[in-house]
Protein 1
Amino acid sequence: MKPYKLTLLIIVVLMLQVGFLPGWQPLNVVPDLLLAVVICLALYTTVTEALICAVVVGLALDISSGTDFGLRLGFYTVVALGVSLLHRAGLALDSLPWRLALAALLTLMANGVILLGLYLHGANLPGRVVASRLFIAVVLELIVMMIVGPIVRRLASGGEGMLSMASRGKH
Amino acid sequence: MKSIDSRRRIMLVVGIGAILVLAGAFGALGPVVWTYDHTVLPVGRSLSSAGSDVGSFFGLLGQVRNLSDQNTKLELENATLRGRLAASADALRENADLRRQLGLQIAGTPQQVGADVVAFQPDSYRQFLTLDRGSSSGIKVGQAALNNGIVVGTISSVSSTTSKLQLITDPEFALAVRDQETGALGVMQGQLGGGLTIKDIAQTDTMNPGDTIASSGLGGVVPENLLIGEVLSINAQAGGIFKSAQVSTTLQAEQLRFVFVVVGS
């Protein structure tokens, strides 16, 4: 992906994920746009580009969050590395069913990490609320993934940037 | 050769990420946070507000059917509260007279600093807000924030120009509270989904549905008698040492735009 496209994508994702989506919170859940973008970048471009997006936006989310500093940056970095590694190992993860399955699984993991932290601190977590939020989070993530996938693929196919060219042949 | 370059690039990005996390853990991210506060936050603030408007619009569509019922209920509540306010005004006047006669100092209203909400928590479980005022405005960790005269949370962290507000509905929020009518003490905790629970109420203490709950002023920098909500129900188990209570709250985090931080009493 060309550097200006990657920069533009990161700025748009950053602003939506830090500003618009937490303000909106459809059905009391903040959709995870960054997760879908990092998965798609890891599948359609290079791991370095996915990592840059994960680190920049993950750090912004950590600064914006009132707690658990480093959790988001760490999680999205691991997602970028893991998805890229599995894809390069031969798994055809770029098909729609695989992308949706990845999005659902990783959403459950991301939510699970936060919920586990709360549980270990003895927080008050009504089972019905947890279950409904997890369900809504997964459904929203699937919708986000269906929208984001074609956009990132189109941006990635529009031309290779310096990072992609340097990595070509290796991946 | 290219493969080595690519690996190095990956290691470099991961290394930078790890250094940033470590720096954050040791509180050495000041310049990065300052840059974030002065570049991302101003734009994010407008987008948060736009997102909140979109949420309010859809929320309103869902509530249209119940508006008539809600209006009747609110009118009734309004009349009750006006009655209570009148009684409180009399009590305040009488209290001030008695204090004057006894030569005691009259407590002033708490000193407050107004702050705009500039960002919301970016996940679905925790309840934190970013405010546009920080230590340079006298804000400190632990201070309470009010909206419409009701406690909405306490300050959890502060930088020079911004601060984080932990809302009372956060699952890890805890505050010492008192029943205004009976004097019963307890610890109020938030819960996922927005409810409030008071725990550790002694079985011998009395607390009734409808009682007003306010801060007790114990164990922190939150002054006493800041209004929080009303008791909805009591849960007492036979043989238990403590009982608990559910408290009502009208707080809707996504609609908060402005709060007052109590910086002095």
Note: Chain A has seven helices and no strands.
Protein 2
Amino acid sequence: MIKFDRVGKLYPGGHEALKNLSFEIAQGELVFVTGHSGAGKSTLLKLIAGLERATSGTVLIGHQNVSQLRRAALPFLRRKFGMVFQDHKLLFDRNLFDNVALPLHINGIVGQEAAKRVRAALDKVGLLGRERAMPVTLSGGEQQRLAIARAVVSRPEILIADEPTANLDESYATDLMQLFRSFNQVGVTVLIATHARGGEQSGGGRVLHLKQGTLT
Amino acid sequence: MIAQHKLALAQVLARARRAPLAWLMMVTVIGVTLALPAMLYVALDNMQRLAGGLATTPQISLFMAMDASREQVADVETQLKNRADVATWRFVSRDDAWKNMQADAELADVAAGLKKNPLPDAFVIEPKEHDNPAALDALQQEMQHWSGVESAQLDAVWVKRLHGLLALGNKLIALIAALLGFALLIITGNSIRLQIANQHEEIQLSRLIGATDRFIRRPFLYAGTLYGVGGGIAALLIVLAATWFFNDSVAEITALYASDFRLTVPLADMALPLIVGSALLGWLAARFAVGRALAGIENY
């Protein structure tokens, strides 16, 4: 499903974030990308989601070579993924419902069908009934779950989360991991970047450990 | 696809509802700016109407040759009768003219010095197309060549002058409209740019999760177009109000000249071009603004 073949990423200015990286992720897998901050975890996820372009090697998603996609084709690649960003990227000028509805609107799904899916997604993360609330009234953990609802609302094949538990306390983090596992159990490929080694990964899932841009 | 457009429109309308004052201000600015050339156009249009309706219509004086026969005079008369482009005409026989000349206090002395009647038979003709100098010229040229006609004179100088002035007025309006249109592009573009800046986060996020440029552009294009439509309607209302305001004074003046002339707004000619043109300007401004902004938020 996802295949990296000798992938390198060199940022302008000379910082080499990834070096000669090769691995494969099958459909339905649960994969943790671990390593210290600066090890290249975020870059790895961004290369997959088409948010950055590799400077060498090939990144295959399905059978598409992402590094050779035209700019106009990128939005359609990005729609295959549900993204949970490190900084949530919630929109604080609109309520929960509208936050979750955005990916559906981008996909051209509106009206009743959209409303149904938004409620289903909010239900999955335990925020149903608060659709009209504003994100600012949510706790940190709830905001993270809102971000997850937004990531899964358009039923992506691949869910990507960048440090989803970074600022949460232990019990919240465990809950959240449970949530990701539940998506994985219904067949979604899940990729999670985390700086913690051990702990969260317990209970199954492959680990890709990055150190200074290479797999160890 | 239609659903997407409805969604974008709903977003814009919701935004307008949240900030009605900002919206109203933009519409007013556009309306006032467009009202200026529109009012000039109305003024010019009324001037044209006034000029067309006044008694000083152009005349062609047709002088028969001194030796023209009665038949030739009759021929000219029948020709004039049959012509569609002649409104009215009047025959002045040489005897009548001679009598008039003798009766005229200032010309009586001159007439007394002449041994016989030097005046030819003449026709005074009012053509139908007052305000088309080219047609008038053509008519005069043709009459010149009728048999028995010595000369046909067109007193068209004032028609040409008026047309020169009206053409100048039209050019002036076009220039003012173009300049103000340019200013509107900048004003509207800037307002859209501010909106984009306000929604920077949404745009960036939308891009990250797979929005096409078209999707991102759409609500702003609608916003620009709606500004334009609103501004066009505002301009129209301003022009109507101004005309109504002026008409009291116009009535007073024209009453002195025993005329019931009133300013009218050529709504049928003006409303659609004004609103559509204004909408187009708004769209164009938004297109520029979004294009620049999207190039600025490049990721990848």
Note: Residues 60-155 of chain B form a domain with the Alpha-Beta Plaits fold (CATH 3.30.70.3040).
